[in-house]
Amino acid sequence: MFTVLVLKPIPSFSQESTFKTADSYFSIEKLGNVYSKDDLNSVFSGLDYCGMLNPKLSYTITLDDSSIVRIHSINQINEINIAPSCQRETDLVEEARWLIKEGILIKMVEAKHSK
Length: 115
What we know:
Blueprint: E1 3-8, E2 26-30, H1 37-45, E3 59-62, E4 68-71, E5 97-101, E6 104-110
Antiparallel strand pairs: 1-6, 2-4, 3-4, 5-6
């Protein structure tokens, strides 16, 4: 089986939404053995969270060094006005491995092959 790398670039926040601070969107739950707290804060503070936020359930992203970052749900960050086009319609828990390379969050996804 192959692995596909999907890059999550670090653009500015979506123009469709009004965001206060990025740290409202995530919290670092555990540091691993490669990425520092500053590394994680830098990457996750720079993400465009449009399309990454669940309506009701928060979820965790586990990085390749065993760091764990919690992505908060829209309900948990309800003081922020988030455009409907940036919200997920249903809660989704992502089963993927993540890593950081040159300041970019990379999502590793198993490729699905068709015959």
